[in-house]
C-alpha cells in the first residue's frame, strides 16, 4: 500500500502541474489550443518521474528492507544517543560526516554544536584513469545534491545527535522528483558509522580499564613481594643478644626488647597499600638504631636532622630503613672503631630529599652483601613514581657512603 500511495502521489502531482499549466494557458486568452509539444514534454516528465519512483522504491526496499511512509520520504531524520560530553560527541560526529564518500564543504560550528556538509552528485571529479564506455555509469540529469547536517543536543552525562539528510532543492520538488533513496542511504550510513565508532571507543575504554586494573594488581603484588624481602637475620641476632643480656645485664636486655617491640609494631605491613610518612619511617628506623646502639655500644653514633615540616610528607615504607641498615651493616659494623650515621631531610616546593650517610668503610668491591635491598628500593621507586623519583648513592667525604632519595612533592600524608 505504501508503494501504491507513493506512486499515486507522483501521478497526482504531475496531473496537478498539468492542470495548473492549462489554467494559466486559458488565463492568457490565447486563441489557439494548448501546444502539443508541452503535452508531450509533460508526458515524458511523468514517465521519467514514475521510472525514478519505481527505482526509488526498489532501492528503499533494498536498504531498509521495508517500504513505509518513513523510508520512502526524500528527507530523512535520525536520532542517536551518545554516552559522551558535547565536545567529544561533536568530534565523533565530524569524523563520521567527513568519512562520507563525495562529501564536500564540511564545516563544524563548535559554538552551535553543528556539522554541515554537502554531497555533490552532479559535479563529480574526473577519474584518474579513463573508463571504457561500456563501464561508464550514465549521469542522471535529475539527480540532486544531498545536504547533510548534524546537531548535538547536550544532556546529563550523554548527548543526542540529530542527523538530517535531504536534497538541496526545495521541498516542492519532492512531489515530482524522488531522490532514489540517496537520503535514506546516507542517513543509515551515518547512524551505522557513528554507532561503530562509539562501540570501538567503548571497547578501547574497557580494554584500557582492564589493562590498568591488571597493571595495578601486578604493581601491588610486586610491591608486596619486594617489601616482604626483608633481611631476617636482624631479628635472630637481636633475640640472641637479648638472651645473652638477660644473664649479664637484665636492664639492657629489657631496654633492647622494648625497642624491638616498638620496631616490630611499626613494621607491620599496611593492608591498604597506602604510603607511609617520613615521620613514621623515622620512628621505625630510630627504634632499629636504638637496638643497634645497645649491641654496638660506643662504636655507633646517631645524628638525626629531619625538620618537623618534612615529617608529614608521604614516602614508601621501609625505604629509609633499607638505607640505614646498609649504612650499619656494610659501613660501620665491619669498621674496627665504628662510626656515625646521619639521617637528613629537606623539603621545598620542588620535592623531598632524604639522605642517609655514614663515615664507615665506603663502597667496596669485597662487600658480602647481595645488593637485593638497593635493587628492591629502586624497583619500588619505579613502580610507585615512575621517572619522577630518583635514587643516588656514592662515596661520602672524607669516608663512608651517602645515599639520597628524591621524591616528587605531593599532598602531605597525615600521620
Report on this model:
There is one protein chain. The chain is of the alpha+beta class. It has three domains: 1-72; 74-121 and 142-215, START domain (Alpha-D-Glucose-1,6-Bisphosphate, Chain A, domain 4, 2-Layer Sandwich), CATH 3.30.530; 229-408, Heat Shock Protein 90 (2-Layer Sandwich). 48% of the residues lie in helices and 19% in strands. It has helices spanning 2-27, 36-64, 69-72, 86-98, 182-228, 233-248, 250-266, 278-296, 319-332, 372-385, and strands spanning 76-82, 103-109, 114-119, 146-154, 159-167, 276-277, 300-305, 314-315, 339-347, 351-358, 390-395, 401-408. The chain has a five-stranded antiparallel sheet with strand order 1-5-4-3-2, with helices on one face. The protein has a five-stranded mixed sheet with strand order 7-9-10-12-11, with helices on one face. The longest helix is centred in the middle third of the chain and has 47 residues, at 182-228. It is rod-shaped, with a radius of gyration of 42 Å. The model is unreliable at 133-137 and 411-415 (pLDDT under 50).
